[in-house]
Design brief:
This protein is an alpha/beta fold. The chain folds into 2 domains: about 1-105 and about 230-265, Periplasmic binding protein-like II (D-Maltodextrin-Binding Protein, domain 2), CATH 3.40.190; about 110-225, 3-Layer(aba) Sandwich (D-Maltodextrin-Binding Protein, domain 2), CATH 3.40.190.10. About 35% of the residues lie in helices and about 20% in strands. The strands form 3 sheets. Strands 2-1-3-12-4 form a 5-stranded mixed β-sheet, sandwiched between helices. Helix 6 (about 155-165) links the parallel strand 7 (about 145-150) and strand 8. Helix 3 packs parallel to helix 4 and helix 9 packs across helix 10.
């Protein structure tokens, strides 16, 4: 995995010999986790290149990748890597998805600030999301029912959680499935019994981050691999990017342009 990621970063760095920006329109679709990064970078990009207009939409990693396959977006944001089945669909339509890692993330469990639980193991998180734990008192908390909140199954964040925490099993039917990371954070903030998970860019004082296996999710622990639910965030293009698309990705990956904005958005830059 690390070798693959290093290769992706090397590919990204090779793009930094950017072509001149071309005036035009860019469509960016996909992951709501990556959306804050895309928003802040797009805003700054359009300030520097005012002849370019960028249209952003969320809807989940799966929808972004589907848009790449269908040819309805220039760039797909994704909080997971593309599936082989999606590659096959794209190739069948004459499109060849190209990945670019753009940031690191620590996928962090969150609870209401009043919840005394501050650390959970991967095994405990798995059993919470499989519906085996029903009450916070079973985990050292108050005698209150556990309200489980998850992302919907089209989400790359859900896919990462399912792979790392649930080991491929599906969240139990009693969980509330929400369409965005922002919605998860809002729901947890409003319910003292709730537990959810978000990328670190969505952490705020209205929710309490929970350590995993005694490790707090942070830029440092995501980068050094000690946080158990760390991951890379990606953008995909349908074939090697050209023109305005290439110029924007160059900007996003540039150590002095887009990457500081990744940090400003609350995520972990590559450099």
């Amino acid at each position: 995995m690390k070798k693959s990621f290093v290769l992706l970063v090397a590919v990204c760095v090779s793009l930094l010999a950017a072509a001149p920006a071309l005036a035009g329109m860019l469509e960016i679709n996909g992951s709501t986790t990556v959306l804050p990064i895309a928003q802040i970078v797009a805003e700054q990009y359009m300030k520097e290149y005012p002849n370019t207009r960028i249209s952003l939409s969320g809807g989940g990693s799966g929808n972004g990748i589907k848009a790449i396959i269908d040819g309805t977006t220039d760039i797909a944001n994704s909080s997971r890597f593309i599936k082989q089945s999606e590659v096959d669909q794209a190739v069948a339509k004459g499109r060849y998805p190209v990945p670019f890692a753009v940031a690191y993330d620590a996928l962090t469990p969150v609870v209401h600030p009043s919840n005394p639980v501050s650390n959970l193991t991967l095994a405990q998180l798995k059993d919470i999301y499989l519906g085996k734990f029903k009450n916070w008192s079973e985990l050292g908390g108050d005698n209150r029912p556990i309200v489980v909140i998850s992302r919907d199954t089209s989400s790359g964040t859900y896919e990462s959680w399912s792979e790392i925490v649930l080991k491929g099993e599906r969240v139990f039917p009693g969980a509330q499935l929400l369409a965005s990371s922002g919605a998860v954070a809002t729901a947890v903030a409003a319910n003292r019994n709730a537990v959810g998970y978000v990328g670190i860019g969505y952490l705020n004082p209205s929710v309490k981050a929970v350590a995993v296996e005694g490790v707090v999710g942070s830029a440092e622990t995501a980068m050094n691999g000690t946080f158990p639910i760390a991951r890379a965030l990606f953008v995909f293009t349908a074939g090697w990017p050209k023109g305005e698309t290439m110029h924007f990705i160059n900007y996003l990956l540039h150590p002095e342009k887009g990457q500081p904005l990744v940090k400003q958005a609350g995520f972990v830059p590559l450099y």
